[in-house]
Design brief:
Elements (H helix, E strand, L loop, with lengths): L1 H23 L9 H23 L7 H26 L1
Helix pairs in contact: 1-2, 1-3, 2-3
Family: Belongs to the UPF0410 family.
Membrane topology: Multi-pass membrane protein
InterPro entries: Transgly_assoc
Amino acid sequence: MLDVLILAILVWGFLVGWLAWLIVRGGGFRDVRWPQAVAAGLIGSFVGGLGISLLSGDGLALRPSGLIGSVIGAVVVLLIWGAVQRRHER
């Protein structure tokens, strides 16, 4: 049962990261840097999804507020990641 949960979390991180990548960077399916997108999806999903779910009063239940928060969190992670990369390139 735990292995199915881990697989579901990875797939959700993949989908959220891909969607956030399309929102932030645009481009097509081939333009995505998958490790970065999946990491942003997992981190953003945890922080944004959990944060918005708790703020809206939904708790840990799977609700639309948490799903939207996941995408918003992943977008924020990608924006921060891009800013840090640009700063290191200088």
